[in-house]
Amino acid sequence: MIALWIGCLFSLIKYAATADPVFDPSTTMRLVLVPADATVGSVIFRLRASDDEFDYPLTFELVGDSSSSTVQIDSLPCTKYNSVCQANVVLRRRLEPGRYYDFQVSVKDTKGGMAQQSCSITATNFTTPTDIIFPKRTSIIMVSEVM
Fold first, then answer.
1. DSSP 8-state symbol, 40
2. Is the dihedral of CA 79, 74, 123, 31 positive or negative?
3. Inter-residue contact 31 to 44 (CB < 8 Å)
4. Helix (H, G, I), strand (E, B) or coil at 21
5. Which of the 8 DSSP states describes residue 27?
6. How confident is residue 83, by pLDDT bands cut at 50, 70 and 90?
7. 64 pLDDT above the threshold of 50
8. How far apart are CA 74 and CA 114, in angstroms?
9. Which H or E run includes 130?
């Protein structure tokens, strides 16, 4: 009986010692403003997470009904030699100005540890002209075919 009790105690200690991955606080998506005219397929945000036990790679994914989601999550390559893992949030559908889009993202490590984050994006009526972002951008790009 004592052996069984000690075995249970060790398994609880081992379970308590495992740490779940953690989202980087600087990349929380509580409310992200995205121009309504953002191009479908463009990256609108980048998530970051880490794991104190380095149980890499970490994988990011949508929680719930991802088939109807306005975004998709693309995990970027990550190995046990990285200090953080990252994922792009990619726009899958056109946004309606003024509308809120809510979804949840999870991050999992190789040992089954997991964390979730609630996310919200709002489509704004604003747009940023590319000539303001890239003031020296030429409107026509020419590439020579002669070598």
1. T
2. negative
3. no
4. coil
5. G
6. confident
7. yes
8. 17
9. helix 130-133
